[in-house]
Amino acid sequence: MSRLPPLPSLKDFIHMYRLRAKKILSQNYLMDMNLTRKIVRKSGRMNEAHVIEIGPGPGGITRAILENNNVKSLDVVEIDQRFIPPLQHLGEASEGRLHIHREDILKIDIMDIWKDYLSEKKSWMDVNECDNFHIIGNLPFNIASPLIIKFLKDMSYRRGAWEFGRVPLTLTFQKEVGKRICSIIDSKSRSRISIMSQYISQPEYLFEIPGSCFVPSPKVDVAVIRFIPRIEPLIPCSFELVEKIARHIFHYRQKYVVKCIKTLYPKELSNKLSEKLLIKCNIDERTTSYRLGMIDFSRICQEYERQCLEIPGLFLYDFRHNKKELKELELLENKFPPLLKHEFNRFEDGVSLSKSKEYLL
Q1: What is the pLDDT of residues 124-160, one digit of tens each?
Q2: 340 falls in which pLDDT band (50, 70, 90)?
Q3: Which part of the chain is the Ribosomal RNA adenine methylase transferase N-terminal domain (predicted)?
């Protein structure tokens, strides 16, 4: 395939189509094509690949994908109608490779985009990452966190994009969020998103982009993070259960972990069950949340899952919102936690973040 024909510069494109970034949508344009090319280059090999770009805006990353890679197809998902004409302009120059979807990425089913390529999917158990499918995006800050949680959940269930194998995912985040995603044990930035990201994928902190490179310039710098789904998760429990445990344990960040664990249970059971769990998991009740390793979270999740299976309705208990008693919760249809459908026999302890260390120290 040939490269893109000569096109107006990105800056001229924005002027031609009168594209002003909307603050309400957290829009910031990355104008430096050298940086958009770097994002694409660091995302991995895209030759002969099917690529989805999230939130292309005026098309900076879109151009970088099309001009330097023999991609088979590039599907862009954009909710803002103003960007459709300039993207169509790029589409006309792309030899039919660019397809535009005016949709909300939080609602769209990626399977609908890639359904014609099912014959090209890779085995999840392949030790090599899936290199013929990619997802990439320079995200508005207001959707970055809910979107990565949605994608991580899809990874855990091997659905959506991850029906096609261990599809790599490269996204931008506020620097602070990026550091939390890749945060290592005993780091003050370690949080719920650290556990959720690292137990199901291997996040890599690729590089940072100064806020001054964007128009308009945000007050924060941006981190580019690449996620590779793990063959097997580091915690052999359902996403919903792991998320609940992570949310509760980081609820009181500076308090002893026993205080966090107690919030999992109704008052009348909290002392007894929290003590049992901590003893069973060999965890000091005076440690704090960010000092817990992945093996600690795995033990906590597995023991809490066992308790929830023994006590119907316990999984539904929420000390903040749900004031129902267990005798009411045990009558509900979803009184037990969802269980994993896949069996795992190569469970690994720890998390590989060696490539990210220079950014996280």
Answers
A1: 999 888 899 999 999 888 899 999 999 999 999 999 9
A2: confident
A3: 35-231
CATH number of the CATH domain containing 211? 3.40.50.150
Q: pTM of the predicted model, to two decimals?
A: 0.90
268 carries a ligand binding annotation: no
Residue 310 token pair = 């023994």
Range of the domain at 253: 239-329
Q: Is 282 labelled a binding residue?
A: no
On whether 55 is known to bind a ligand per the annotation, the reply is yes
Which of 181, 204, 229 delimits the end of a domain?
Answer: 229
Consult the annotation and say whether 142 binds a ligand.
no
Pairing type for strands 222-229 and 169-174 reads antiparallel
Q: Read off the tokens for 349.
A: 């302890």
Dump the DSSP string for 134-152: EEEE---HHHHHHHHHHHH
Judge whether 30 is annotated as a binding position. Answer: yes
CB-CB contact of 50 with 133 (8 Å) = yes
